[in-house]
Amino acid sequence: MTDKIILASKSGVRKKILENNDIVCEVIPANIDEDQVKEALLTEKASPSIISKNLAELKANKISQKKLDHLVLGADSVIDLNGELISKPKSRGEALDILKKLNGKKHQLISSVCISKNGSMIWHYTEDSNLTMKELNLDEIKSYLSKIKDKELYAYGVYQIEADGRSLFSKIEGDENTIMGLPVKKIMEYLNTLK
Known about the structure:
By secondary structure, this protein is an alpha/beta fold.
């Protein structure tokens, strides 16, 4: 498959997943204010999966309004800890607080994708993965965080499953690509229906 799509995300991991599956993509980040959207949706009591889906759709629609007749892929992932939405950290202190909150607990990672054309969503899919974090002491958490570069921490969140993040978990249930932010099998299935 050599479909060309536009990826409305600056995520290097998502781009790599597409390329590893022979999906040619051009990257045009949507640059939306995710925090503002999340706050508005939380005020409306939206669930984490609705928030994830809406953010993916917003990103895809924004770029597809500018790039007419192109398929634009938007994606978003959020953490749901017993109904509480956990976002990417904005500081190392916040990252530490998030890991302390997840410590020893099971949470859901929700990954949503949306494909838009001419400013409207034409397909979307959301998949949940369950991750159970090991019970770690504070020194172990701090040691793990010290290995993550700032750029990665703020771009991808508190754990990168494709790197050292795997060591944080006692149990991982779900597709690895989905956990990294892109349920690529479902995207490929959809793209194949367009041929």
